[in-house]
Amino acid sequence: ELKVEQNPLFLSMQEGKNYTIYCNYSTTSDRLYWYRQDPGKSLESLFVLLSNGAVKQEGRLMASLDTKARLSTLHITAAVHDLSATYFCAVDSFAGQDKIIFGKGTRLHILP
Amino acid sequence: ETGVTQTPRHLVMGMTNKKSLKCEQHLGHNAMYWYKQSAKKPLELMFVYNFKEQTENNSVPSRFSPECPNSSHLFLHLHTLQPEDSALYLCASSQRPGRGTDTQYFGPGTRLTVL
Prior knowledge:
The complex is a heterodimer of chains A (112) and B (115).
Chain A: E1 4-7, E2 10-14, E3 19-25, E4 32-37, E5 43-49, E6 55-58, E7 61-66, E8 71-76, E9 85-92, E10 100-102, E11 106-111
Parallel strand pairs in A: 2-11
Antiparallel strand pairs in A: 1-3, 3-8, 4-5, 4-9, 6-7, 7-8, 9-10, 9-11
Chain B: E1 4-7, E2 10-13, E3 18-25, E4 31-37, E5 44-50, E6 53-57, E7 64-70, E8 73-79, E9 87-94, E10 105-106, E11 110-114
Parallel strand pairs in B: 2-11
Antiparallel strand pairs in B: 1-3, 3-8, 4-5, 4-9, 5-6, 7-8, 9-10, 9-11
C-alpha cells in the first residue's frame, strides 16, 4: 500500500528565508503532484513531476523529484507572506487504480 | 462559470436528514472524484468516476451514495450521517481517466456539519 509522508507538518519561518518541504513515498511511482491550499479554500495545482530528475520552478517555488530515493522536495526561496498556505504532495498509486494518495500537508506560516 | 463548481458551499444537517451535494465541471474532463477532508486525517479519496462509470469506491460507508449522470456532473447523496462525517467535501476532475495521471482540478468544496 502506497504511503506518502510529508515533513515538516508545520513550519513557521521569517520572510526572506529559504526552506525545503520534503515528501517521501513508500512504493515505486514516477508521477508526483504538489498542491497549495489557502485557509477555507480549495486545492490549487502547483506542479506535476513526471520523471526522475524532473525539476519545475514557478516564482519562488521549485519542486524536484528523485524516483530512486522516492523523494520530492518543494523549495521556497526568499519566502514572502503571500506564500503562507498548506502544501500537499500527492503520488500516483501506480497500481492500475484511478487514484493518487495525498500526504497530510505542510502548513506553512511566513512571518513578516 | 468556469472550472469546477460545487453547491452548496455550506450545509448543516441532522443525522436523520437526506441531502445531496452537487459538483459540475466546465473543463470538458472525463474523470470526476469525491474527496473528504477532515481536520485530523489526510485528504481521503472517496469515489472515482471515469466516463460516468464508477471505478473506485474507497471503502466508503453506504450512507454516502454517489451519482454521475454524465461526465460533467457528479452528486453525492447523503442520508443518516454521523457527526464524524462532518468535513469539507471536495470534488475534482481530470482530463483523462486511468491511474489518476493528469492534474486534478478541485472545486471550492462543501463544508458539511452533521448535528
